[in-house]
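Journal club prep — side note

Before the paper discussion, L.F. wants everyone to see what a predicted structure for a comparable chain looks like in token form. Sequence:
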Amino acid sequence: MSQVKRGALTMFRWTAVFVLLCLGTASVNAGLFDDEEARKAILDLRQRVDAVRLLAEQGAGRASDENAALRRSLLELQNQIETLRSETAKLRGMNEQLTRDLSDVQRRQKDMAQGVDERLRQFEPVKVALDGREFLVEPAEKREFEAAFAIFKKSDFTAAQSAFIEFLKRYGQSGYAASALFWLGNAQYATRDYKEAMINFRSLIAREPEHLRAPEAVLSIANCQIELKDAKGARKTLEDLIKAYPQSEAAVAAKDRLTRLK
């Protein structure tokens, strides 16, 4: 029961007590007044009692209305709280999904970027070191030279010749060119194509006289001349080798060849 309702009932009880007391007093003093005055007094008291009862009932009604309104407000508040909880749960779920989606997108972007980088690297020049030199080449250029050299190392000298000739046609200005000429000449020497071998060894020397393989190329020319029974030409080539590259291992070998030629 609300405080307002309890106050109204209390007031009513005290009023009822007061009325009873008044009625008792009126009966005691009935002899003091005539009947008309007694009736007026009783009616007045009854009106007061009715007024007090009405006030009490009105107070109780207002309290009941206030309690009902409060209950409705609390119910609405609870409904709002439940709605907010539901919306918060939905938002949390959406946020988690968005986080997963973002993570997936970032992972795909990273994979795509790596894929693009790898594809670009297939076309970007790369630095290589060969025969004491460093230079830039295209990835395809590097692959083709290495493939031709791999064939040479398998002692498939005929196929190696074709591979190096094709390479030089395609990459005549390559940093690999001098080395390709050297190994092409060696493949031709191995198949006893001495004249073609000398042409390529001389091309290497004319192209890059300071190349690491140049002294060996000169010695190989002398060897080709010896195989072709050109002892005079071989002697001249060996002497030129000793003068041009006196500190090379090829020069040491050239001195030994000269001794045997004499």
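L.F.'s comment for the group: The CA atoms of residues 187 and 193 lie 9 Å apart. Keep this in mind when we get to the figures.
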